[in-house]
Amino acid sequence: MASALDNPLLFLLVLILFPLSVIAQTNGRISLGSSLSTSDNSSWVSPSGDFAFGFKPVADKNLFLLAIWFDKVPEKTIVWSAQRGNLVLYGSKVELKSSGQLVLSNNQGQEIWTAEVTTGSATSADILDTGNLVLWNSNSGITWQSFDHSTDTILPSQILDMGTTLSSRETETNYSSGKFELRFQTDGNLTLYTTNLLTNSLYNAYWSSGTAGTNSQMIFNQSGYIYLRQTNGSLHNLTLGNIVSTRDFYHRATLDFDGVFRQYVYPKNSSSSGNWVAGSWSVVWSVPSDICLTITDVLGSGACGFNSYCRLNEIQRPSCYCPPNYSYSDPRNTFKGCEPDFVLQSCEPNGAGKESGPQFQMTEIMNTDWPSADYEWYTPVNEDQCRETCLGDCSCAVAIFKGANCWTKKLPMSNGKMYANFGGKALIKVPFGNSSLQFPSPSGSNKGKSDRSTLILITWTLLGSSVFLNLLFLVAILLAAIFIKHKKLLRHQPEQISLGMNLRSFTYKELEEITDGFKQELGRGAFGTVYKGMLVSNAGNLIAVKQLERLVADGDKEFKAEITAIGRIHHRNLVQLLGFCNEGSQRLLVYEFMSNGSLSSFLFGSLRPSWNQRTQIAFGVARGLTYLHEECGTQIIHCDIKPQNILLDDSFTARISDFGLAKLLHADQTRTNTGLRGTRGYVAPEWFRNMPITAKVDVYSFGTLLLEIICCRKNVELGLDDMDNVILTDWAYDCYRERRLNLLVEEDEEALSDARRLERFVRVAIWCIQEEPSLRPSMKKVTQMLEGAVEVSVPPDPSSFISSID
To answer: Mean pLDDT for the chain?
Structure first.
């Protein structure tokens, strides 16, 4: 028989077909007898190459997880695993056997997992472009699929029927089942629970969709939207706002190890990333918004483990912290709780007595509470009485003091949380001064005594040498000279602020060069003048440099405090602070440059923006303000929301600027940040009535801004013929009351064709501009109303409440 080498045409045909045969084995239908091993570093890949199934190394090069992952994402994000956290050793194998069973065998050849088929045996398998691993029977019907056995993640095109459960991981890198579950219950309600891992029993739900009905389904559609389809055909949308295209982004929704259900997107290439960070997963929505505050069940440990407290960090994810003199039970998993580093005083008669001196003292943590661990309540008492009560009570580990109330608590404590609005403090009982109550060192006390004796002997030996004393004297003189020189140098250096974040400290000279001598002015405002600059060292990136003016008298101290707060804030609808200058009397801030300028220029220019663009801008501003008011570590009231302070990036996404700067101005400066003092405009009426200034002043300003976005006109137009139309807020309410919304949008066909949203937006704006602050909704509720998640009732006349009490 002639070989291929003897026939050039046959040889060429073999060369052409050989690569195709390899691809078929990798991306084609998987036939009976196919197998994967930990040793061959291969996988079964979907036709597009987006997903792969195989052995994924985890934690250790000899430990593997049989899983499905995003194969084109560099970190190979896992979306499903066969045995959750049960890892296998090197030498294990998975095989689609000739019997039609998909079987996982360990390195000893023992079968440890099988895909339980529903009808007959499988004749082939596929890893689909949806991320679904499917076993087919002889009739091309599905006999098993990974979509029916979800772990912690669901993907577009996946449908969950009632009774389905998602379980979180134990940690970010431990794929064992964690303590959180998402259940699509048989009554049609989607719920989030904490569980008791020992018995798998459920505690009370900490979030639910509030839906009901038989034969409901949870659908993650191919466009990237997640919703509940109920029996009567109605849809309950879980996905808030607009979702980016699945054509340009990978999507997944995961019940994360911290108990939050999040939808993520990942740009498929840098050109499609738009406003999202290329090369990373970004969160587009999540529930609940603050799990630290949401879990309130008296059973279980809460979001974090026992004796720890939960707080949202700078990226709005829960972190768990230990009180003073407490340590993590498992340093590798900070969500497992904390244990005291000392022995609490004994309640026995021979326990720690007063004659030995005070052995405990109280240290405090502000705005922290363990609401589920009370055993006694004292009122009315002052803080000193609360401290003494706990110190004199051998059962008391922590006392919570708020107002004139004192709650004493004993270990273990659950549901610990720190949040700015609590208004109280936790008083923690800790050892007083000496270490007699600390747990003993593993090395033993004898070794400590030996070390001290050795140290004393060496010291006296050295001091007995006059040569050593002379050398010591010379070294002291040298160190003093170095210290004096260093101190002089520091006087001439720009002062550095230790912010603990990735902010760059610029010198004033650097910023002069970057801005070409502060040549190109971008704008002026209450906080100072903004100049355009370019970072030559950073590929010519454009920046905006704000030179602050009219700071408060104690400006240096205020500057440090506010920059520390601003630098920790990150949100897609806020302008990002990149750096600062704090040199002498110069105070400058360096921001990312917004290429499309201010909302003022965009709205009031010669071209009218589309209705869709305007609605997306409104959503963005609302979400940014919601973050500042309720979701970042410390509440920030902007005090100057207006179109000039809303900037637009490359994608025309709204980005709020100048947040956190109000405290830097003179006391009366924030009250004159508009030329419309005394008229209804951006400034809330309480500024002029000596009423308390709260976050509701921003809600009022947003209401005016929202009307400007709807109408594409300024809040005051002095050149109009009809004097009734001069003040936008008055005219808008008149148009709403008289059902003439078409006048507000100047017969804009796109807006009028979206009549329900148009009316909803106008209603929301009128609620925001109520002259009585208590009638205005919070920005969180404003956002929900704009997005249609909360019904918007008919608003009253904005001035009716004030008029009724005058």
So the answer is: 81
Is the pLDDT score of 208 beyond 50? Answer: yes
pTM value?
0.55
Query: What is the longest distance spanned by two Cα atoms in the chain?
Result: 109
| pLDDT above 90 for 82 | yes
Identify the CATH number of the domain in which residue 418 sits. 3.50.4.10
3-state helix, strand, coil in the chain (%, to 5): 30, 25, 45
* pLDDT of res. 218: 93
CB 763 within 8 A of CB 791: no
Q: How far is CA 331 from CA 58, 319, 337, 340, in A?
A: 19, 13, 9, 14
Distance of CA 481 to CAs 468, 472, 475, 492, 782, Å?
20, 14, 10, 18, 62
Instruction: Region of 18 please: left (phi>0), alpha (psi -120 to 50) or beta.
Output: alpha
The answer to whether 515 and 545 are in contact (CB under 8 A) is yes
* 720/718 Cα distance (integer angstroms): 6
Question: Which amino acid type is present at position 532?
Answer: K
First to last CA, the chain: 109
15 assigned to some structural domain: no
Task: Tell me the C-alpha distance between 613 and 706, whole Å.
Answer: 13
Same domain, 626 and 767: yes
The better pLDDT of the pair 214, 108 is held by 108
Element counts in the chain: helices (H) and strands (E): 16, 44
Claim to verify: residue 157 and residue 134 sit in the same structural domain: no
Q: Is the pLDDT of residue 762 over 80?
A: yes
Question: Do 547 and 650 belong together in one domain?
Answer: no
Claim to verify: residue 673 and residue 549 sit in the same structural domain: no
Q: Is 640 a catalytic residue?
A: yes
If asked whether residues 133 and 228 sit together in one domain, one would say: no
**3-state SS assignment for residue 476:** helix
Tell me the chain's radius of gyration from C-alpha atoms.
Answer: 33
Residue 256 lies in domain: 151-289
Does residue 610 share a domain with residue 584?
no
pLDDT of residue 348: 55
pLDDT of residue 242: 75
Closest residue by Cα to residue 601 from 639, 648, 638:
648
Instruction: Describe the strand order of the beta sheet including 360-366 as a list of residue ranges.
Output: 360-366, 425-431, 398-402, 405-409, 374-378
pLDDT band at 669; cut points 50, 70, 90: very low
Instruction: Answer with the residue of higher pLDDT: 196 or 675.
Output: 196
Residue with the larger pLDDT of the pair 491 and 534: 534
Q: What's the token pair of residue 75? A: 């970190």
Based on the fold, state whether residues 271 and 335 are members of the same structural domain: no
User: CATH number of the domain that 164 lies in?
Assistant: 2.90.10.10
pLDDT at residue 734 tops 50? yes
Identify the CA nearest to 633 among candidates 253, 258, 367, 405.
Answer: 367
Give domain status of residue 259, yes or no. Answer: yes
Q: Is residue 31, in this structure, part of any structural domain at all?
A: yes
3-state secondary structure of 333: coil
Exactly one of 71, 640, 649, 698 is catalytic; which is it?
640
Burial class (CB in 10 A: 0-12, 13-18, 19+), 729: buried
- Residue 500's pLDDT band, with cuts at 50, 70 and 90, is very low
Give yes or no: residues 626 and 560 share one domain: no
Count the domains in the chain: 5
Residue 480 confidence class, pLDDT cut points 50, 70, 90: low
